[in-house]
Amino acid sequence: MSTKFYQPARMTLGSRLGTLVLSSLLMASVAQAAPLDLSKVPLFLNQAVDPNIMVTFDDSGSMSWGFTPNEVQDGEFPPAARPSYSIPIPYYCYWQTPMGYSSAFNKQYYDPNVTYSPPLRADGTTFPNARYTSAWEDGMAANRPNSPTGQTNTRNLSNDYRVTWGWDITRNPDHITHSNSPTTCNNGTRNGNIGGNRTWRFPFGDNAFYYRFNGDPDNLDQVFDPTQYTAVNVSAQSAAVQTNFANWWSYYRVRNFSATTALSRAFGSIDRNIRVAWKTINNSNVSGGNNQIRPLDGSWRQDFYEWIYRISRANGGTPNIGAVRSAGDYFERSGGNTFTNPYYEPTLLAATYNGAKELSCRQNFHMFFTDGAWNNTSGRRNADYDRASITLPDGIAYGDSPHTQVYRNENSNNVGGMADNAFYYWREDLRPDLPNRVPTFVADPSTGVTGPLVPPDQLPANLIEHPEIYWNPANNAASWQHMVNFMIVLDVATRLPFPDSLSGLRRGTTQWPYWVSNGDETPEKIDDTWHASVNSRGEMLVARRPDELVRALEEVLQNIARRRASASAVSVSSGVVTTGSLAYQTGFDTGDWSGFVEARDVNPDGSLGNIVWEAGPLLDTKVAGNGWDSQRRVFTVNTATGQGVPFRLGSLSPTQLGHLNRNPDTGIPDLRASQRINYIRGDRSQEISNGGDFRSRT
Predict the structure, then answer these.
(1) Element housing 86 (H / E)
(2) Strands 635-637 and 644-646, how do they pair?
(3) Can you tell me the distance from the alpha carbon of 224 to that of 82, in angstroms, rounded to the nearest whole number?
(4) What is the pLDDT of residue 90?
(5) For residue 313, what pLDDT is reported?
(6) What gap in Å lies between CA 420 and CA 531, rounded to an integer?
(7) 324-348, pLDDT tens digit by residue?
(8) Where are the alpha helices (DSSP H) in 459-603?
(9) Which string of DSSP letters, residue by residue, matches 668-692?
(10) pLDDT confidence of 484, banded at 50, 70, 90?
């Protein structure tokens, strides 16, 4: 399990070598054969069973707020968070400062460095761009199929701008408008809270605006210094900027707007064979009440997207503990030959277990999106599962050991939280009547953290048999039916430094803290959310801005795809080719699909010696900057002429360009041939890790 703020992994160019060579060969093959349905994963990994994903969405009241993090509204930044600068502003009313209208402080507000793309429809087409002079109050409600009447109100952002601070379920936003006589802020009564409408003297009257931060975002003194901000009048900017601002207003300006837009975009490119069900934290009815989980295609895809469109309003508590339990309970179901059975597989020719067509190797994932900490104990199992000794279904004993501290080293009062629920649904065999054939997964085969360092050549052939690798939360040794939790949270505060505390947690030098109160949303409960992802061998990703939500969700889906494709991470090595005094070897890691090409010395006894060079670092150097374009020679065949040509936009046939100008998942033309060609050549600017939407190469 990797735990991080959303920063997708960098790639090594060893993997890029294979990608470029293979891509050129595939392009050349077009001249020789009919179009192929090419695999999106390595061919020898592609015989994988499609997993289950339960999507849980936070529909609590705070999801209707127009600011992130929570401290922007209630001013709970402690003085210690502002180390030396004495801020001459009201302590609670950040909406009366430039910081409230800058993405440097209020992550929900418009960021000029982000392109705000509209949501996607179920068929992969995009919603229309919003118009600056008539921006939809709720762009998703206005443009979704079967949009309810009366939900297409618009606002002219050039002369009637207002800032949405909160939005209740009655669709009456608590907002801030321009006035030369602004609302008075009273620290004692905290009228900086979201309730009620307020006024402030906007820098350009009723024109839309934002503040550009000119300082160092890592320097809190500067972040809290109003003189570090410059007001920008959007009405004076280009048409493209105004459209981008209008898209933010219509599709991203409050938390549930940005979250539902992110869901629509992240699932736009998902493999349609992956099985999906859905629910919210305040309504445990699965998939609209029919309790089914199906491949995300056809009418089921339409139903899923319709659910996304209709959760753009929020009004409820935060029973996150119960949400984890309801998801885990679902994966205990059987139910015979119906889609209410998570293990049902209709393509089987005959019953496999219990008179039903069931697959015992199907994996279960829970994708949980939330903006805060749990604030009630509804659904708790009220037992200290992650501290209790037990023999797991594979016969391995779980108890107090140097390798298990990351799960069990917690305050003794921590009983019945999210982490306990998550550990229960990982450790228990959710279907004891099925064989234990769920594939294990090793992403990190390293040692030396919770035990002695073991040379790779001394590790067992089955890496999961080594205790440090078995208990490393980056790996998943569970072969029985269980549930893995992926937590996607907004920029909220943990008590422990996140993710830097993970090493101390694994070594047992850091302890999971006590949350003190069951009713309050405290940083320790975000630690408990993190702990839940660790306990279930999943991941917690923290998105700071609306655009990062899309990338965080895509990262989760990529993680699931890697687990789906690999029973256990192994290095697949080819034969060694020896020429003179050097031996050349290639390899492939099924854990992250990375490859390598290396040259080694040949020892006098014929064994392999030291590495002389490795292709990855050499290629990294070669493609640095604009090297991917100027320093590489990549070739293919023009299918119209049959001649070898450089793999560049101007050298390809109209048929080839037609394929490259289409979204490979939806088949819809998008005119992105140039970007795809550059990506194959080694350009990384369009990868998810750099703000684009192409796969991040690892």
Answers:
(1) none
(2) antiparallel
(3) 8
(4) 47
(5) 63
(6) 9
(7) 999 999 999 987 899 999 999 998 8
(8) 467-471, 502-507, 523-535, 546-565
(9) -B---HHHHHHHHHT--TTBGGGTS
(10) very high
Paired with 583 in beta bridges are: 578, 600
Q: Are strands 154-155 and 135-136 parallel, antiparallel or unpaired?
A: antiparallel
Q: Compute the distance between CA of residue 41 and CA of residue 38 in angstroms, rounded to an integer.
A: 9
pLDDT of residue 424: 97
Taking the CB of residue 148, how many other CB atoms lie within 10 A of it?
10
Residues in CB range of 480: below 8 A, 6 or more apart: 392, 393, 394, 429, 430, 436, 438
Q: Which class for 88: exposed (0-12), middle (13-18), buried (19 or more C-beta within 10 A)?
A: exposed
602 touches 609 (CB < 8 A): yes
**Matching residue, tokens 């503040």:** 211
> Quick check: 430 and 409 in contact, CB under 8 A?
no
261: three-class secondary structure by DSSP: helix
The letter for the amino acid at 358 is E
Which amino acid, residue 226?
P
- DSSP string covering 425-455, please? HHHS-S-TTS---PPPB-S----SSSS----
With beta carbons less than 8 A apart as the criterion, state whether 333 and 162 touch. no
pLDDT for the residue numbered 112: 95
Q: Which of the 8 DSSP states describes residue 519?
A: S
Q: Per residue in 348-399, pLDDT tens?
A: 888 888 889 999 999 999 999 998 789 888 888 888 999 999 999 999 999 9
Q: Are 54 and 365 in contact (CB under 8 A)?
A: yes
In tens, the pLDDT along 40-76 reads 555 444 456 899 999 999 988 888 889 888 777 655 5
**CA-to-CA distance for 348 and 358, rounded, in angstroms?**
8
**How far apart (Å, rounded) are the C-alpha atoms in residues 560 and 514?**
31
Q: Which two tokens stand for residue 93?
A: 């009313």
CB atoms within 10 A of CB 683: 20
pLDDT band, very low/low/confident/very high, at 39 (cuts 50, 70, 90) = low
Q: pLDDT > 90: what percent of the chain?
A: 49
Of the candidates 426, 415, 261, which has an alpha carbon nearest to the alpha carbon of residue 327?
A: 426
Q: Answer yes or no: are the C-beta atoms of 504 and 514 closer than 8 Å.
A: no
CA distances from 492 to 71, 246, 639 (A): 9, 26, 53
| Whether the Cβ atoms of residue 691 and residue 550 lie closer than 8 Å to each other | no
CA nearest neighbour of 64 among 314, 429, 434: 314
| Spacing of C-alpha 127 from chain mean position | 22
DSSP letter string, 467-493: HHHHH-TTSB---SS--EEEEEEES--
Helix (H) or strand (E) holding 210: strand 209-213
What is d(CA 508, CA 530) in angstroms, rounded to the nearest whole number?
16
8 Å CB contact between 256 and 312: yes
Quick one: pLDDT at residue 693?
Answer: 78
Using DSSP bridges, classify how beta strands 635-637 and 390-391 pair: parallel, antiparallel or unpaired: unpaired
The residue type of 483 is: M
Distances, alpha carbon 168 to alpha carbons 75, 175, 198, 451, 689, in Å? 21, 11, 16, 52, 34
Phi–psi pair at 101, nearest 5 degrees? -120, 25
Q: Give the residue from 414, 540, 555, 550 showing the smallest Cα distance to 484.
A: 540
Backbone angles phi, psi at 458, to 5 degrees: -105, 0
Structure-block tokens of residue 220 = 């809190």
Q: Write the DSSP symbol of residue 131.
A: B
**CB of 672 within 8 A of CB of 693?**
no
360 is written with which tokens? Answer: 């015992």
Mean pLDDT of 243-260: 94
